[in-house]
Amino acid sequence: MLIGLEYVIAAYGIWLITFVVYIILTKRRLKTTSHAVAALEERFSGTSAATQNGNNI
Amino acid sequence: MKKIILYLEWGSILGLICCGLWVFLKLPIETSQGFPQKIMYLHVPSVITTYLAFFVVFVYSIAYLWKRELMFDQIAKASAEVGLVFCALVLITGAIWGRTTWGTYWVWDARLTTTLLLFLIFMGYFLLRMSVNDRDKEARLASVLGIIGFLDIPIIHKSVEWWRTLHQPSTLFKVDSGEAKPSMPPELLYPLLASTLVMLAFYLYLLLLRYQTEKRTDRLNQLLAETQV
Q1: Cys-Cys with B110: which of A7, B42, B73, B159 at CB 3.0–4.6 Å?
Q2: Residues B70, B218: contact at Cβ < 8 Å?
Q3: pTM: predicted TM-score of the whole model, two decimal places
């Protein structure tokens, strides 16, 4: 049995888990904001097109 | 940009796995510290990455105050967040390594205390950002704090020379009669350098990912403000 194995596992384990969670959360946040931005931009372009059509009529 | 992020993501993850295999399967167990010395290959590269992350904050904060480009503040904010995660891991892995070598998780030693101070300064950096509503004011104040916060890093680095501490002196290189020489044998130094390079690539990946998020968040806030008008 290696002496101090539990400390090495703890250090590497904490490091790994931290970044796995951090990457998952950041990617999820990126996806959510990207969807929200796309939806709002679509709504804006739809509104401006409708306004333009209204002006033309 | 998406492709670069993807290459960096898989390249750095693959690199981290290879370094892990090298450290655990190929390297001999160091004689004085034993198996816990393997923590060095995680702790020291994390320290260097923390320094780099906050250096990026320093540079981009100056750039923002000078040019007032929102992009510079977005990069500074992204780097500060990644740096803060690395800094927390430096404190945790250092405490675990300290338990095996010094027999205690924490001492109010100059190196440890100044590193904790750095962590707290950048926690304050985010609290400051959260407490200000105006985007420009937030960026301005955070830039000033980012510049001040970085000034702690030279103090951390020199603390082992300026004060009597438990912490060991510089791990990678030591200056001997005006010349920087490696402070460990090559079979321990090369995997450490490789781990450091891979971790820097990993930092770059996280920075770009976080920057993308920051850019989109600002765009979202801008669009929401427009809908309210």
Answers
A1: B159
A2: yes
A3: 0.90
